Amino acid sequence: MQPAYLQSSDIINYQHPTVWACAKDLTQGLNDPFEVTQRCFEWVRDTIRHSVDFRLNPVTCTAAEVLEAGTGFCYAKSHLLAALLRANALPTGLCYQRLSINEDGAPFCLHGLNAVCLPDIGWYRIDARGNTSGIDARFSPPQEELAFSLAWPGEADLPEVWPEPLPVVVESLRTHATYDALAADLPDVPLISG
């Protein structure tokens, strides 16, 4: 049995023919894990349009849905990136930040990104959300350059690397039919005080 971070699943469905073909086309001639990661990361970041930035429907969830529609929220884009990297035998998981929606404290929402296990580095987080004015996420290991930094009480980098998306994220993607409906009801989790 494959380790959890390499498996194809209902959401990270890299065995879907179009996802598999995309993963292999993107990395043709590349063997270095860093080059493979950078190519897949930059392609998802720059080619798959963020649903809110471009006001696009449908709301996508699985890697294949994201690839077919060419759009997705940060969560869905992270599902596609995980699929592309796993198809290239790179252990990849899902990570989350809890961020202020209005950049002034509560309310909060989850933001989805990835972690890939790179040689001599270990888990390295990458954020394929999509760059805009004020957002400049990059692949520059070992330094992380994510889309968002924490600025408000209640925000957090959740430390876990998940092999599958959080159920609250999947439920949100599956129950909202349009990008604006989901944007008005983004998923969140309470922080556990320790």
Q: How would you sum up this structure, described in words?
A:
This protein has 194 residues and is α+β, with helices and mostly antiparallel strands. Helices cover 33% and strands 19% of the residues. It has 7 helices and 8 strands. It has helices at 17-26, 33-47, 51-54, 63-69, 74-87, 167-175, 179-183; strands at 49-50, 71-72, 92-100, 108-118, 122-126, 138-140, 143-145, 156-157. A hairpin with a 2-residue loop joins strand 6 (138-140) and strand 7. Helix 2 (33-47) packs antiparallel against helix 5 (74-87) and helix 4 crosses helix 5 (74-87). The longest helix has 15 residues, at 33-47. The chain is globular and about 45 Å long. The chain starts with 16 loop residues before the first helix and ends in an 11-residue tail after the last helix. 40% of the residues are buried.
Secondary-structure map:
Elements: H1 17-26, H2 33-47, E1 49-50, H3 51-54, H4 63-69, E2 71-72, H5 74-87, E3 92-100, E4 108-118, E5 122-126, E6 138-140, E7 143-145, E8 156-157, H6 167-175, H7 179-183
Helix pairs in contact: 1-5, 2-5, 4-5
